[in-house]
């Protein structure tokens, strides 16, 4: 029999130690990362124990219930809305504040046990007045060993796919990883000859104004993270969050990216260039430099460019995807499912 308990702050160490040895967890599931934005998302994460009392799974999740902020920044967003209220019950999201976030599993868990995780979660949600469960999968490239048991149980519980965000990924083990346009190579060689340089661990403060100006000019928006938030996360995870920039021959920063490192994936969380950086194609120079550098590091198998969706979250940003594909990237899906709690009976 599997038992469920809701995460509380006194389980911080137990949660983190489990994530570190799980087969599909990343640093995004550590509490120091999850809780930085607890003023926006009311945590409703769950922990699962087998009959011997051993922790076998955790579910990063948020719901509409008002709960204390655990270990994050002081609130500066005002009172968050009651996310997910609807007539037939509340919605549990796993997890709105993360790029991905389904069950994080023990390496020894069996497919039948994952079925029990779904069964027990649905019972828990029924008892607590939830009408829907939004389940956001962890893409396979973040699995250290095969971890797709959930696909079978999502099908068995008649889960409906409600979102499909497309990532662009280079697999360094694939023959296609050497694909890049000759035009990009031309700009790369030109800038290298002219004395442009890549700084591999640059100051975030040098890059952030470029990112903010670019997003405001193009989309009238701000980065998902504020500068204070990203500096806090960098302080908490110095090995996992690294800023890389391009400087022109005069030493001025003209482009950059913020990289998130997990066990086998390098992810570009943000990419941006100034007007001068765009003029001289500094981002081509930066991306080809980084791809070449991490291709030769045996720890990393994937270089992930993030998602490329239009503002409506439905259509593709085809121009952006084409740019990423010209570096040799190809598509990986990040899917979200909906389970109707009242109808979820095997």
Which stretches are poorly predicted, pLDDT < 50 over at least 5 residues? 65-87
Number of helices: 10
Number of strands: 15
| Main β sheet profile | 9 strands, mixed
Strand content: 25-35%
- Specify Rg, calculated over alpha carbons: 21 Å
Helix content: 25-40%
Structural class: alpha+beta
Identify the overall geometry: elongated
Order of helices and strands: EHHEEEEEEHEHEHEHHEEEHHEHE
Cross-sheet strand order for the largest sheet = 6-8-15-9-14-13-12-11-10
Cα-to-Cα separation, first versus last residue: 18 Å
Overall pLDDT confidence: 90
Description:
- The chain is built from ten helices and 15 strands.
- By secondary structure, it is α+β, with helices and mostly antiparallel strands.
- A nine-stranded mixed sheet has the order 6-8-15-9-14-13-12-11-10. A four-stranded antiparallel sheet has the order 1-3-4-7, with helices on both faces.
- It is elongated and about 65 Å long.
């Amino acid at each position: 029999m599997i038992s469920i308990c809701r995460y509380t702050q006194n389980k911080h160490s137990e949660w983190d130690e489990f994530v570190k040895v799980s087969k599909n967890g990343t640093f995004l599931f550590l509490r120091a990362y999850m809780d930085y934005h607890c003023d926006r998302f009311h945590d409703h994460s769950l922990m699962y124990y087998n009959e011997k009392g051993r922790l076998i799974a955790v579910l990063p999740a948020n719901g509409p219930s008002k709960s204390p902020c655990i270990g994050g920044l002081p609130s500066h967003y005002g009172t968050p809305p009651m996310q997910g209220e609807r007539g037939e019950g509340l919605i549990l999201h796993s997890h709105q504040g993360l790029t991905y976030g389904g069950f994080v599993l023990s390496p020894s868990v069996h497919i039948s046990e994952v079925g029990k995780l779904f069964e027990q979660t649905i019972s828990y949600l029924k008892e607590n007045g939830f009408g829907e469960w939004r389940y956001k999968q962890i893409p396979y490239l973040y699995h250290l060993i095969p971890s797709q048991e959930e696909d079978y149980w999502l099908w068995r519980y008649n889960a409906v796919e409600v979102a499909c965000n497309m990532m662009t990924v280079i697999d360094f083990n694939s023959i296609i990883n050497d694909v890049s346009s000759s035009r990009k190579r031309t700009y790369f060689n030109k800038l290298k000859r002219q004395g442009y340089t890549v700084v591999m661990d640059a100051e975030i403060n040098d890059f952030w104004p470029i990112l903010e100006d670019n997003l405001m000019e193009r989309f009238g928006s701000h980065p998902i993270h504020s500068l204070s938030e990203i500096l806090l996360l960098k302080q908490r995870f110095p090995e996992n969050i690294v800023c890389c920039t391009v400087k022109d021959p005069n030493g001025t920063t003209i482009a950059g990216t913020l990289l998130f490192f997990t066990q086998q994936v390098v992810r570009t969380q943000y990419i941006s260039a100034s007007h001068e950086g765009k003029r001289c194609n500094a981002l081509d120079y930066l991306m080809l430099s980084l791809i070449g550098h991490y291709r030769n590091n045996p720890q990393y198998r994937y270089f992930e460019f993030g998602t490329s969706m239009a503002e409506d979250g439905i259509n593709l940003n085809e121009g952006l995807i084409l740019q990423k594909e010209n570096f040799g990237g190809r598509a990986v899906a990040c899917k979200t499912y909906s389970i109707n709690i009242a109808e979820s009976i095997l």
